[in-house]
Write a structure and sequence with these properties.
Largest sheet: 6 strands, mixed
Number of helices: 8
Helix content: 25-40%
Order of helices and strands: HHEEHEHEHEHEEHEEEEEH
Strand content: 5-15%
Number of domains: 1
Shape: globular
Strand order of the largest sheet: 1-3-2-4-5-6
Radius of gyration: 19 Å
Number of strands: 12
């Protein structure tokens, strides 16, 4: 399982690298030719009511058993039984250009999504339940165009995620604490979920924390609409953790320019002020932490046949000018780092053990606080 995940990280990273090199070195037209769907947008109907009652609509949920990709763990790590239920939204895994939204039965896309869950959602399986829905995700090319179809694809994908989340909430007991998490496209959908389904509702009191990783968040225009503050300490609950990882020297202009092209949650244009950065090594308590604070990076072996946790592999520092998380000299995780020393693919694996400890600590703090009520 670890081997398959690592192979898939490599395959996806190569394709993403190709796209970003096309954007940066060659023309925008070339990148669109390679990745943006050429078909007319086919508006998607909402999934029928009750669709997410079926196990086949979930990569991960209680009862799936040994085929659940979120239940893998590195050697020496024991799965826990914390009190929280985790809702995890996987990143983009549909790389074809035949459709603006990945079909639910696309085998390649589903296989990649499953491998991502092996490396990312597993950081959350110290809790009792991990739920990860299938959804008609926006194609990778939707992020490489300013055509209306790109946003339409994202909007349609979000409606699936929202429907899955509504089912998740009805399936878990009414007093169960909730952890929300996602990466990249998954985090984009997550911040909309917080605005639409959590902010200003009784559900907000049940949120242990929201981990919106790998998608920049505007402190001024996104965070207030999400209804939760940034995490400023490792034992706080009901807060947001977010970061985007770059080694140094870092060139993050492509990422920040793409982030600014889409309106914020409040409908306003984003500006050049720093995005939200909460240091995963300190739980947001401090913007800077040495490598000695890193409890374990999930690192592939040289032949990509296994993975192990490496303690103290990288430091982390929130850049005050941009909000980008800087990790010092480029670590040797493999050759699949994106241009500009962008470690986007490894946002969660870089801090796998710290993230796991962070979730467990906040879940325990939430349980202790609510036991006194």
């Amino acid at each position: 399982m670890a081997r398959k995940f690592l192979y898939m990280i490599a395959i996806l990273a190569v394709l993403v690298i190709a796209a970003l090199f096309a954007l940066r070195i060659w023309s925008t037209e070339l990148s669109r030719f390679a990745f943006v769907p050429r078909t007319d947008y086919a508006r998607l109907d909402a999934l029928p009511s009750g669709t997410y009652a079926e196990n086949k609509m979930w990569f991960s949920r209680p009862g799936i058993g040994t085929q659940d990709p979120s239940q893998w763990a590195p050697a020496g790590v024991k799965k826990g039984a914390g009190s929280a239920a985790v809702f995890f939204i996987h990143p983009t895994s549909y790389l074809a250009r035949e459709h603006w939204n990945g079909p639910l039965d696309d085998s390649d896309s589903n296989r990649r999504a499953s491998y991502f869950l092996h490396g990312m959602a597993t950081a959350f399986n110290g809790q009792a339940q991990v739920w990860a829905p299938r959804y008609r995700q926006a194609a990778f090319g939707a992020f490489l165009t300013d055509k209306a179809e790109g946003q339409m694809a994202l909007d349609s994908a979000y409606l699936d995620v929202r429907q899955a989340f509504d089912k998740f909430v009805t399936e878990i007991p009414a007093n169960t604490p909730i952890v929300l998490a996602g990466h990249s496209q998954g985090s984009l959908h997550l911040i909309h979920l917080l605005k639409d389904r959590v902010a200003g509702t009784p559900l907000a009191a049940r949120i242990v924390a929201a981990y919106a990783v790998g998608w920049p968040i505007s402190v001024e225009h996104d965070l207030p609409a999400m209804g939760l503050p940034a995490c400023t300490g490792p034992n706080l609950t009901g807060c947001v953790m977010s970061w985007s990882s770059f080694a140094e020297p870092a060139d993050f202009e492509i990422v920040l320019q793409a982030y600014r092209t889409r309106p914020a949650l409040d409908g306003k244009a984003k500006d050049t002020r720093p995005v939200l950065c909460t240091n995963p090594l300190t739980g947001g308590a401090s913007p800077t932490a040495p490598a000695s604070a890193n409890l374990g990076t999930l690192q592939p072996s040289e032949d990509l046949t296994s993975g192990e946790l490496v303690v103290g592999a990288v430091p982390a520092r929130c850049d005050p000018a941009t909000g980008i998380l800087l990790i010092g000299d480029p670590p040797e995780l493999g050759p699949y780092v994106l241009p500009g020393n962008n470690y986007h693919v490894y946002d969660i694996p870089l801090f796998w053990a710290n993230l796991r400890a962070d979730v467990d600590r906040r879940a325990a703090a939430w349980a202790a606080a609510n036991a006194r009520k």
